[in-house]
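[job 4471] stage=fold_predict status=RUNNING
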Amino acid sequence: MSGREWARHWRYEALPGLDLLSAHYVRHTFARHAHDGYVVCAVTGGVEEVGLPGGTVRAGRGGVVMINPEVPHTARAGRPEGWTYRTLYPSAGLVAEIAAETTRLRGTPSFAAPDAVDARACALIAGVHRAAEAGNALAADSLLRHAVARLLRLHGAPAALRAPAGAGARTARRARDVLVERMADPPTLARLAAELGTSPFALSRAFQDAYGMPPHAWLTDARVRRARRLLEDGVPPAEAAVACGFTDQPHLGRHFRRIVGVPPGAYQRARGRTPGARADLPGARAGQGSVVRPARGRRAPRAGACAAPACTAQERTRRPS
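[job 4471] inference complete, writing structure tokens
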């Protein structure tokens, strides 16, 4: 497995409601963050270590990791050689549509288990990527729906009902609303707590209980989410950084890479229909921020083929987070 880190985070216009990430990471680590949609990834080489509220999952080749919306998590290499994977980010609406058509789940669908060994699902996820890369919309859409339906049938469950919000949860929600409204110039923890009529420690505990991370980490994640939307609308990275409350473009870039997995510029170029663009990450031999294109004349692999020579096994251990 190569020591060079690379990643491509992109969107195939023929498949609305879906983002795709294919990457090989060695030293890169994902800071704690969450998504408003689902995460479904197939590990095709090495070992990925994912930190979840219920513990740590180690997924090896042939392993599929499934994360529900708004579940905070981290990710890093589980071995010195890193990990390679292909990830699907289907929207909540898309997963709900597939669940309604193919399962008997009622209410909001969720994955009851965060990981599984599933060679067939691995091949389907890889096939979605390969078909999208080849511009085969029919195959990509078909494979996507089969992959999600299979995982829902095997590991799906209705989302757990939330307990009635107590005083702490209500305070956390009010704090979140303030941070969203004043994202570019947020108050200190002490001032925010005073405005809400509580203490800094009580507010921090309530926020952690409600959202799985402290207010400052949640704010950074929210800023990056807003920056993604601005970049998708064509706003230059430097302007997006200031609009979201980052000091400058490098400040945005550091946090953006730790949450999204690619630099802001590469993220924006990939949504500007740059064919086959792949960003080498900082520290890669090809140079920071460079774009690597597939060699001319290279034939696209057939849709449905697995991304690795074999998708057959998973190394998995759990320990308390």
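[job 4471] summary: The two ends are 28 Å apart (CA to CA).
[job 4471] exit 0
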